[in-house]
TrEMBL record:
<keyword id="KW-0472">Membrane</keyword>
<dbReference type="InterPro" id="IPR025519">
    <property type="entry name" value="DUF4407"/>
</dbReference>
<feature type="transmembrane region" description="Helical">
    <location>
        <begin position="58"/>
        <end position="80"/>
    </location>
</feature>
<protein>
    <submittedName>
        <fullName>DUF4407 domain-containing protein</fullName>
    </submittedName>
</protein>
<feature type="transmembrane region" description="Helical">
    <location>
        <begin position="92"/>
        <end position="110"/>
    </location>
</feature>
<keyword id="KW-0812">Transmembrane</keyword>
<feature type="transmembrane region" description="Helical">
    <location>
        <begin position="30"/>
        <end position="52"/>
    </location>
</feature>
<dbReference type="Pfam" id="PF14362">
    <property type="entry name" value="DUF4407"/>
</dbReference>
<feature type="transmembrane region" description="Helical">
    <location>
        <begin position="272"/>
        <end position="294"/>
    </location>
</feature>
<keyword id="KW-1133">Transmembrane helix</keyword>
Length: 348
């Protein structure tokens, strides 16, 4: 065995002394150690990219990636090393079920950040779609709220302007009637005689009254209109400030959760991309489960028999040590009892 094979055997969690006695098992355990090692490397890369997308810091991403990779390596190594080839297949499968479920979960966790990297260009485009959609939704929400707040002011201002327009219309109508009366235009409300007569005088008085009424209403409503315009302008400024402060931007919406949302929408809307995502996830789940499945489906070999013998020898040694301790304890009790009986007889 060269140094690399020994290193992979250490990664597999196998006993090197027992493997030296069963050389036919070395290749199988080298393969298991390789799968565990490369799974840990992929986990380190995946977690490092995920952390970099969150904090945008190379050193933090490298440190956390190495830590996560070592944890996955140690966990996989423990899972494989703790499995024993004892009992029938169904018993072994039942015992390995929790380990298989854990391996599947780890495969999903490892695959997602790498999927984000693989589909980075598509995700960036989808992020722009999400940002624009969020902008539109935010603008609609803010506009609806401020429209409701400004509704009473706008309605009152519209009522005032409607009254002003009505008074102005009455004044214009009175002016037109006066002009027709003076010119001598025959209508239902004019006499048709040219000149300034009694009827023209009445129409002039009506025009003057309408003008005075219009001017008086304008003077009366001018302060209120200024207040209403000020309130509406203030609400409009507040609305614009809120939109500027709360609207999502491309720089502020590129985190890990946002990219996961974009990937989720892409896989739902694009069947080809969804299938590709499932295959990538399946590959990583298979890689993570491979050491457990290989250990489960492989037949019991010389290494397993030697391992059982080695562990059983410790069980026998433990039982023998316990029996010796029990015998020694019983002997001490008997000796103490004999001494007590002899002391009692001497005293008698």
């Amino acid at each position: 065995m060269n140094w690399f094979e020994k290193f992979l055997l250490i990664c597999s969690g196998s006993n090197l002394k027992l493997l030296e006695k069963s050389p036919t098992e070395i290749n199988k355990h080298v393969g298991i150690g390789g799968v565990i090692l490369f799974t840990a490397i992929l986990a380190a890369l995946s977690s490092g990219y995920a952390l970099y997308s969150v904090f945008d810091n190379h050193w933090a991403a490298i440190g956390f990636g190495l830590l996560w990779g070592l944890m996955i390596f140690n966990l996989d190594r423990f899972i494989v090393a703790s499995m024993r080839k004892s009992g029938n297949f169904f018993r072994q499968f039942f015992a390995a079920t929790p380990r298989i479920i854990l391996a599947a979960l780890l495969g999903i966790v490892i695959s997602k950040p790498l999927e984000l990297r693989i589909f980075e260009k598509e995700i960036d485009k989808q992020l722009n779609v999400i940002i624009n959609r969020n902008k539109t939704a935010l603008q609609d929400s803010v506009n609806a709220r401020y429209t409701q707040l400004a509704g009473s002011f706008s309605n009152e201002r519209n009522e005032i302007y409607a009254r002003i327009n009505a008074l102005r219309g009455e004044y214009n109508l009175a002016s037109t009637e006066l002009e027709k009366e003076v010119v001598g235009t025959a209508t239902e409300t004019t006499t048709g005689k040219v000149g300034y007569g009694p009827n023209a005088k009445r129409k002039e008085e009506l025009k003057t009254a309408k003008k005075e009424e219009l001017d008086a209403y304008l003077v009366q409503m001018q302060p209120r209109l200024a207040e209403l315009d000020k309130e509406i302008d203030l609400l409009s400024q507040n609305k614009q400030k809120e939109l500027d402060a709360a609207k999502p931007t491309e720089e502020g919406y590129t985190g890990f959760a946002a990219r996961m949302q974009a990937l989720n929408e892409l896989t739902k809307n694009n069947k080809i991309l969804g299938i590709a995502s499932l295959f990538i996830m399946g590959v990583f789940i298979s890689l993570e489960m491979a050491p457990v499945l290989v250990k489960l489906i492989s037949p019991k070999g010389p290494y397993d028999y030697l391992l059982d013998k080695h562990e059983y020898s410790f069980k026998i040694f433990g039982w023998e040590s316990k029996e010796k301790m029990d015998v020694s304890s019983n002997e001490r009790v008997l000796v103490h009892k004999k001494r007590s009986d002899r002391r009692i007889r001497e005293e008698i």
